[in-house]
Amino acid sequence: MNDNALNVIAARPELAAQQAELADRIARNVPGDGLHESPIPGLALIRASETSLPLPTVYHPSICVVVQGRKRALLGEEVFHYDPLNYLVVSMSLPITGQIIEASPERPYLCLRMDIDPAVVGELVQRLPASQASSNGSRAVYLARTSATLLDAVLRLVRLLDTPEEANVLAPLALREIHYRVLTGELGQRLRELCDADGPAQRVARAIELIKLRYAEPLRIEQLAAASHMSTSSLHERFKAATAMTPLQFQKQLRLQEARRLMLVDGVEAATASHRVGYESPSQFSREYRRLFGAPPRREVMAMRGAAG
After folding, report:
1. HTH araC/xylS-type domain location, by residue (predicted)?
2. CA–CA dist 194, 268 (Å, integer)
3. Contacts from 27-30 at CB under 8 Å and sequence distance 24+?
4. CB 9 within 8 A of CB 85
5. For residue 48, which of 83, 100, 88 has the smallest C-alpha distance?
6. What's the whole-model pTM score?
7. How many Å apart are CA 115 and CA 45, to the nearest integer?
């Protein structure tokens, strides 16, 4: 952990105690490095004993709380560092490049990822006082300061991993409180805006879901704008404000990441994978794949398999 984080935590003993217990409980509940879905629906535990290379992937709406170590997320040209002082919120599905930048066998990177439940967010927003604030089309990913009250709710949730009979009843309550702490915390307005069914954030989210559903098809901006109830100019403006990319760039990243999954997990050849995700030109696929992942498809996938082995 960097010196600034250590100094801040040392000055806030309540955070230090909570994070120490969380680190111990996460370490006891994961069999090794990697992402582990927990018995509590919507909660995953992550552990890494070493730093990583940048890895492009799709982040789904979630709250990520780091307990130990440090990670960075890259969205376009923007970099978001999250650590025990700052949690990450992703309010829409986004192609993000993640990289663990602080981890060791002695002090592994430990993180909790909690799915955002739109139904819970919507119900809570109805109960909260109306907000006059506006995020003015800000990013669909942001950092906020970790508080003792948020960590308290997270800790109570993780403790339930040791009492499955209680988790069925109490875990939904703890998850609901975590949603509440995020909604009422720093920059929580960005999450609130997703509940405005006719607001700009919800329209962008609708466009994202349509692109995810039809990523292998030719993207017709006019049809996407009409389905999202926006003009083409408004769609471009709002979409780029939320995701740091145009709809076409967003689709391209989804295609390349799905092609990578097909090759790495399903063993599909590069030419077949490129065709399945919508590319007509193998050479264009190879160029764009190399630009995103740093190597041609065959070489990059072989390297990843070698690292996994």
Report:
1. 205-303
2. 37
3. 27/108, 27/110, 29/158, 29/161
4. yes
5. 100
6. 0.87
7. 12
Which two tokens mark 115?
């799915």
Question: Which of 123, 21, 10 lies closest to 67 in space, CA to CA?
Answer: 21
Closest CA to 70 of 34, 38, 110: 110
Q: Three-state SS for 193?
A: helix
**pLDDT for res 124:** 94
- 3-class SS at 133? coil
221-239: b (≥16 Cβ within 10 Å) or e: eeebbeebebeeeebbebb
Q: Smallest Cα–Cα separation from 190: which of 121, 236, 262?
A: 121
The three-class DSSP label of residue 44 is strand
The predicted pLDDT at position 9 comes to 47
Q: Taking the C-alpha atoms of 245, 246, 250 and 255 in order, what is their torsion angle to the nearest 10 degrees?
A: -130
